[in-house]
Write a sequence for this structure.
């Protein structure tokens, strides 16, 4: 395999080529371009940079950014979590109130006998030499 000489590589980049667009029926030249490899490379790089810049500008400066996952503002995520906690606490409160109202309804109708707490409390032995628990 032969080594590429930097001079020949640069010369190949600057060699001129002709690109002709012809009408197939009449063989008439429609458009002719004189190009080199370097000019094609520069043109493609310029188009790539322009398209990338345009895409980034659209995402950064328009509301399209809110459709990208993770790009939204942190304030929106904070508000979402706050609303979720508030909703959960309201759901619990509604469940407690519904249970309370149902118990009142049963007591008022006399459908269920009032159940008293009959468990006995066990008092700790304070004189038995055990540790005293101070409250």
């Amino acid at each position: 395999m032969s080594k590429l000489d930097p001079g020949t590589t640069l010369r190949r980049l600057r060699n001129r080529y002709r690109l002709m667009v012809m009408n197939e029926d009449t063989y008439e030249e429609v458009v002719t371009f004189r190009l080199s490899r370097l000019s094609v490379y520069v043109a493609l790089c310029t188009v790539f940079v322009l398209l990338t810049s345009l895409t980034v500008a659209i995402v950064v400066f328009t509301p399209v950014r809110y459709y990208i996952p993770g790009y939204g503002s942190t304030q929106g995520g904070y508000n979402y979590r706050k609303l979720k906690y508030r909703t959960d606490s309201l759901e619990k409160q509604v469940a407690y109130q519904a249970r309370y109202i149902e118990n009142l309804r049963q007591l008022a109708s006399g459908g269920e006998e009032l159940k008293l707490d009959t468990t006995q409390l066990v008092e700790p032995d304070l004189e038995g030499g055990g540790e005293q628990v101070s409250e």
User: Anything to note?
Assistant: Residues 74-107 form one domain. The CA atoms of residues 59 and 65 lie 5 Å apart. The first helix runs from residue 6 to 14.
